[in-house]
Write a structure and sequence with these properties.
heterotrimer, A alpha/beta (about 325), B alpha/beta (about 425), C alpha/beta (about 550), A: about 325 residues, alpha/beta, Rossmann fold, eight-stranded mixed sheet, B: Rossmann fold, seven-stranded mixed sheet, six-stranded mixed sheet, 15 helices
């Protein structure tokens, strides 16, 4: 990929930092002066992928804009754990309005900033909207689509943990097939979430023809920072969909957060790519191909697939989804399979 | 400058004179002409330094307004009816966050059955949402209240809803005095937000507040509205000193001197009521009118002072609290706690039904003779109502009410089915 | 700003919420022992010096390396680098070319003329070292750096011991050997050549030595009884190799049969090839049983050395003295060679026996308290013999015999001699727990196969004593150094600092590593899982 031009061996492009790199090639997260946009003391669960993803993204955006940044935040875990009165963890100007209106709130902020500039404010203050998958793919989708369609100067970031975690792990339109949630219990003839539903929001974003759409995971910081930085270099509507494992909701060990994100990408279940004006312009290739079982097994939300009698057919259907992604996006290096 | 123009146009001009920075709206009758006018002014460049955003829903419109207001921009939007209901969650949020947005509500009925005509059900549904609600009697007042509205909103950091009757005002051509930019600038200083999203001073707006402080937060919202009770008359007076006319205020008494019967109402219907009262006064009947300009905050003291000598109060309102009756009347009753007046509700003009002088004469006379039931429906067609009630008693699956009624009265829609 | 109560909050306020109280387990940083370090007989801190080499600071790397081993240029050529066999990178792609980087550093030091720092203070003690081979010179170096006066008695005419007389030039060019020896002498070590010690105690007394380190090499060839005719020309391998250091090269004839399967057998055969002969190795067993290192066997075969597997020599020197008789062997069920009675006659101008060597322990005569067993002198774990103040190492003591082991003995003995001279005892730092592969997260290491060192072309390998294996240049040495996984030792990759969802890792700055902020650490363990090199572990919180 174009943004992995740095070739180091021991310290690779995969670690957060690298003492051997030139300062300007170092990641934002490696910096001693990083802004910690989401400060310590927040009340996210242990090993929260969303807290991690949000700090990665907002820190990168702060770097990219010289801290001239405002964030609007949907209701959800990220909002609740970061701003319970009387403590906020945010170091950026930040507003929470509602669950389903964040893209629109951001549009309003961007409009205000545009007028301020017109009126002589020298600062170029940029706007990010952020929310979980529920606030993005479901309840906030109308406002999101409107923001995209108008090509408002907003970067919308979805932190996708594949269910309504804040309310107690209910299904969202981002919940994958077979996954157990509180509203898709592993009971009956088709346990867990059903197959054949759900919404591919990055593709829908692309269908709006907006300048930039990307997916990323908390397992590849450099890629994530590159995409946020790139997004902030572009005007108009932009969308980044970040895969953020939820230890609590997925029934996974808190220390496996980054690992699960990595396995989701390496298995092909979560394709990592970027697109400009509706066309895919880059994909993150799979580096160490793994079968989907390796990703599914550490998560109790899939435990019903691996009981005394494993649901071989269901697992095969999930593998087929991964395989389809691999084909569609060309996720394997030529000859790597 | 005097102008003969549509009410919507007058409001658009007033809003433009207030130098708004962000305007967004989603079209809904009868609000459309206002935002069409503003959109054109922005696009043509007549209204400078303003962003006009066509958005995908009223919910988005209010949400965009929340964002722009929180970011320090003077923000305006307009809606009506279903649109107001569709944005409700954000309406409450805007006031909860203390954002001084000004919104026109071109009052219109709420469905079902869907109805595009005027009544006050939409605004009344939002009486507890934390916004200041000002009702305009005329197009001139609608124009004036927008200018006053921005001043009031920004001083208190509270949103203001200017309610004007849909079609009756919005689409009516009347002569209005459009003030000059200099006058408006002299009256309305640039927006200086109480709190703002600013990278130079980052704050988090919209925290989650638990039981330990929620009551205090709500009390403070109430206290702010109470402050408006002081500021609204002052702003009205300041307005008069610059613009030379009486406009706004909390209540508007009309011929209350020695009136033992007082009609209380809001909005444009006050004109018809005043005409009727003039005629009755000419007959020597001691009847007067109390117009309520500020419905929220509700001016309990001013209403009580105005009505304390009345023996009968007829509250004529364009809304119905289904299951109890009047909404305005309930508020008036609270103001008159301990005053031995008989208070009745007259529900009138729902869904755009005309309120004629003849009907008012009839109902006021009934009132004078204490012949009105506590909740009276003006010009209700009892034949239709009774026929339907009878039908429902007889047939379990009697079908949709609205269609049955239309069939009963033999209008076009009866051809459908 | 006139902020509304409760709804609008100031930045930094969440720091009041010390989420560390949620924790039941906490992460702690630790250093684990890299398998290469664990394996190295010379006790080199391989990971430690590679760390400096990775940043291109070769002098720092060389100085770090030479704390344990003063001969990187030599070791980079002759060490059998068992470290690479232990290297965790071998589980990812291929082991790090530790040996090649070591040689690069050694050569770089010679090229740049880097010198050892002289001792800061003199101890006033005087130590005798017997033998200027790898073990003796390693000890001399370490002792000198510790501030002791050191005199080396060498029986031969040159330094290097078995490195000179046992390792052919094409593997160890003599200018490299000489330079690394000279650098130790430059530190102020006194060398007395052609000084054979026959009576140790007398020599010590005469020289006024406070202690001695004995490091005599195994120069004496073992013989086997082989019936031989009068005219048979039978030589021993050590003698052949030693004579290569003289001006007169040995007269081997055309057909040279080498008997044995160790590295010395290979060395002799390859030397013979370079002298124009047609060498044939006769070995009793099969190739996989051969004690010689496989890469050396392979190189010998490439160069045209022939081997008769499963063969013993029954008779040397036929009627005309130019043939030998061999007997075919076969392996029994236990893998032992058994004679088959099948004989074969081969032409042979010379038979060279390469059957191993012994140490001449004559100098120990009259030293009381020593225990000699199987031709070696017994030492305690401090390398001290039964006679206080006399230490021994290298080929003289029971251990595997190779240069690296010998250098390690020298270092270990020196530290113990130093402690003994100062009236104390040397306590090595406790060993860290092993950085096993399972403790690593190899995902983070980029794919980077090992760099192959250049080999001399085959024609020159067959006809000259030019060095067979080339070295790395700066760029590929850097590449190779950077392939190190830094097993068990923080290399400041910033992963823990980055992946903590609670910003509970404090970055202390270059070279200072990190520190946990337990005020906020919730104990999720992501830092442990994502540490590439296994330098963090979770421990239960005391509650």
């Amino acid at each position: 990929m174009s943004h992995q031009e740095i070739k180091f061996y021991q310290t690779g492009t995969f670690t957060v930092g690298n003492r051997l790199l030139e300062p300007d090639q170092r990641s934002v997260q490696a910096s001693m002066e990083r802004t910690n946009s989401l400060n310590s003391g927040h009340r996210a669960c242990q090993g929260c992928g969303e807290a991690l993803g949000a700090r990665y993204a907002i820190d990168a955006a702060m770097r990219a804009t010289g801290n001239q940044l405002i964030a609007a935040n949907a209701t959800g875990c990220l909002e609740v754990f970061s701003t319970p009165y009387p403590e906020t963890s945010w170091q950026v100007p930040w507003i929470h309005s509602l669950f389903g209106n964040t893209a629109a709130v951001a549009t309003g902020i961007a409009a205000a900033m545009k007028i301020k500039r017109q009126k002589g404010d020298r600062r170029d203050v940029r706007v990010i909207a952020q929310g979980g998958d529920g606030g993005t793919t479901d309840i906030g989708f109308g406002c999101l689509s409107g923001m995209w369609e108008r090509n408002d100067d907003v970067l919308y970031i979805c932190y996708d943990n594949e269910a309504y975690m804040n309310t107690g792990v209910q299904r969202s339109s981002a919940t994958p097939p077979a996954a157990r949630t509180a509203t898709t219990m592993p009971v009956g003839p088709e346990p867990g979430n059903v197959f054949g539903q759900g919404k591919n929001v990055p593709r829908i974003a692309m269908a709006h023809g907006i300048p930039y759409v990307a997916t990323a995971t908390v397992a590849d910081l450099r890629d994530l920072e590159y995409k946020v930085t790139k997004a902030m270099s572009v005007r108009g509507a932009r969308y980044i969909h970040i895969f953020v494992p939820c230890p609590l909701g997925w029934g996974a060990a808190s220390h496996d957060t980054v690992k699960l994100a990595r396995l989701a990408k390496e298995s092909g279940l979560f394709p990592v790519f970027e697109a400009e004006y509706g066309e895919v312009t880059g994909v993150s290739k799979i580096r160490r191909p793994v079968p989907v079982e390796e990703y599914l097994k550490p998560q109790r939300r899939y435990a019903h697939l691996f009981g005394k009698q494993p649901h071989v057919e269901t697992i095969a259907k999930i593998q087929a989804i991964a395989d389809a992604n691999i084909r569609r996006y060309g996720l394997l290096e030529a000859g790597a399979h | 400058m005097l102008k003969q123009c549509e009410g919507s146009h007058a409001v658009a001009e007033a809003v433009a004179l207030c130098r708004p920075e962000v305007i967004c709206a989603y079209p809904i009758s009868p609000q459309t002409h206002i935002v069409e006018g503003l959109g054109e002014m922005v696009k043509s460049g007549d209204l400078k330094d303003c962003e006009f955003i066509n958005c995908e829903s009223e919910f988005a419109a209010m949400s965009i307004s929340i964002g722009s207001s929180a970011a320090g921009a003077r923000t305006y939007t307009a809606t009506a009816s279903q649109g107001l209901l569709f944005m409700v969650e954000a309406v409450y949020n805007a006031s909860g966050l203390g954002l001084p947005i000004v919104m026109t509500v071109a009052n219109r009925a709420i469905g079902a059955p869907i109805n595009i005509w005027n009544d006050h059900t939409d605004s009344m549904s939002q009486r507890d949402c934390g916004w200041i609600q000002l009702f305009a009697e005329t197009n001139q007042e609608a124009l004036d209240l927008h200018i006053q509205g921005f001043k009031l909103a920004e001083e208190l950091s509270l949103p203001v809803m200017v309610c004007m009757d849909g079609f009756i005002l919005t689409h009516a051509y009347e002569r209005v005095d459009v003030p000059s930019q200099e006058q408006v600038d002299a009256f309305l200083p640039p927006y200086e937000p109480r709190q703002v999203l600013d990278p130079a001073e980052p704050v988090s707006i919209g925290a989650m507040v638990g039981p330990e402080a929620f009551t205090e937060v709500r009390y403070l919202a109430h206290a702010k509205q109470m402050m408006a009770l002081e500021r609204i008359p002052q702003i009205s007076a300041e307005f008069k000193s610059i613009f030379g006319r009486e406009s706004g205020g909390l209540v508007r008494p009309y011929r209350l001197e020695d009136a033992d019967t007082v009609v209380v109402a809001l909005g444009s219907v006050l004109g018809t009521i005043k005409d009727t009262v003039d005629e009755m006064r000419a007959e020597g009947i001691a009847i007067g009118v109390l117009g309520i300009n500020s419905f929220r905050p509700f001016p309990l003291d001013a209403v009580r002072a105005a009505l304390k000598n009345a023996r009968r109060v007829i509250v004529l309102e364009k809304s119905l609290a289904v299951g109890i009756g009047g909404i305005v009347a309930t508020n008036v009753r609270m103001a008159l706690d301990g005053v031995p007046a008989r208070i009745v509700t007259v529900v009138a003009g729902l869904g755009g039904r005309a309120i004629t002088r003849a009907s008012l004469h009839r109902v006021f006379r009934q009132g004078l003779h204490d012949q009105l039931e506590p909740v009276h429906f003006l010009d209700l067609d009892w034949n239709i109502v009774n026929r339907h009630l009878e039908r429902e008693r007889e047939t379990r699956r009697s079908g949709p009410i609205a269609e049955s009624i239309l069939r009963d009265i033999g209008t076009v829609a009866s051809k459908i089915g | 700003m006139d902020k509304p109560f409760a709804i609008t909050l100031d930045p930094g306020s969440s720091l009041a919420n010390k989420t560390g109280s949620w924790r039941t387990f906490k992460p702690v940083y630790l250093d684990r022992l890299p398998p290469c370090n664990n394996q190295c007989p010379a006790g080199e801190d391989i990971q430690g010096w590679l760390f400096h080499a990775e940043s291109g600071n070769y002098e720092a790397a060389w100085r770090h390396l030479t704390r344990d081993n003063p001969f990187p240029a030599i070791m980079g050529r002759v060490c059998y680098h068992t470290c690479e066999g232990a290297c965790n990178r071998g589980r990812v792609d291929e082991p790090v070319g530790i040996n090649s980087v070591e040689r690069f550093l050694g050569d770089e030091a010679l090229k740049k003329g880097w010198k050892f720092a002289p001792p800061a203070a003199e101890s006033g003690k005087h130590v005798l070292v017997v033998g200027a081979g790898p073990s003796g010179m390693s000890a001399a170096y370490q002792l000198r750096r510790l501030g002791h006066r050191v005199t080396v008695y060498e029986a031969g005419p040159m330094t290097g011991g078995m490195m000179r007389f046992g390792i052919p030039k094409y593997r160890l060019p003599r200018e490299v050997l000489d330079a690394e020896m000279q650098r130790i002498l430059d530190l102020g070590v006194t060398l007395k050549l052609d000084t054979k010690v026959d009576n140790l105690l007398a020599a010590m007394q005469a020289g006024g030595f406070d202690a001695a380190f004995l490091a005599v090499g195994a120069h004496i060839a073992k013989r086997a009884f082989i019936p031989a005719g009068d005219s048979a020309r039978v030589l021993d391998a050590v003698a052949v190799l030693r004579s290569m250091e003289n001006e007169d090269k040995p007269m081997l004839g055309r057909r040279v049969v080498v008997y044995g399967g160790g590295n010395t057998a290979i060395d002799v055969a390859r030397t013979a090839k370079r002298l124009g002969a047609e060498p044939l190795i006769v070995y009793r067993r099969t190739r996989d049983k051969m004690p010689a290192h496989d890469f050396e066997v392979e190189e010998a075969l490439q160069e045209g050395v022939m081997v008769k597997w499963l063969s013993t020599i029954k008779q040397a020197g036929g009627a005309d003295g130019t043939s030998i008789t061999i007997e075919k062997m076969e392996l029994d069920a236990n893998g032992h060679p058994q004679p088959t009675g099948e004989l074969e006659t081969l032409e042979a101008d010379t038979l060279v026996l390469a059957l191993g060597q012994d140490v001449d322990l004559g100098l120990l005569n009259g030293v009381p308290g020593l225990e000699i067993r199987d031709g070696t002198v017994q030492v305690d774990r401090n390398m001290m013999t039964g006679y206080a103040g006399i230490f021994a190492g290298g080929d003289m003591v029971p251990a595997e015999r190779n240069v690296t082991v010998a250098i390690g003995h020298g270092k270990k003995a020196a530290r113990n001699i130093d402690a003994w001279l100062r009236g104390g005892s040397y306590a090595p730092a406790p060993k860290h727990e092993l950085a096993a592969f399972e403790k690593l997260n190899p995902w983070y290491y980029s794919d980077a196969p090992k760099t192959v060192r250049p080999m001399l072309d085959i024609i020159r390998r067959q006809s000259t004593f030019d060095e067979v294996q080339g070295g790395l240049d700066e760029s590929n040495a850097l590449f190779e150094a950077r392939r190190c996984l830094s097993c068990g030792n923080c290399f400041e990759c910033d992963n823990c600092y980055g992946v903590c969802p609670d910003n509970a890792v404090i970055k202390l700055g270059p070279g200072k590593r990190f520190q946990f902020n337990y005020d906020y650490c919730k104990g999720c363990g992501v830092c442990v899982s994502e540490c590439p090199c296994g330098a963090i572990k979770m421990v239960a919180e005391d509650i």
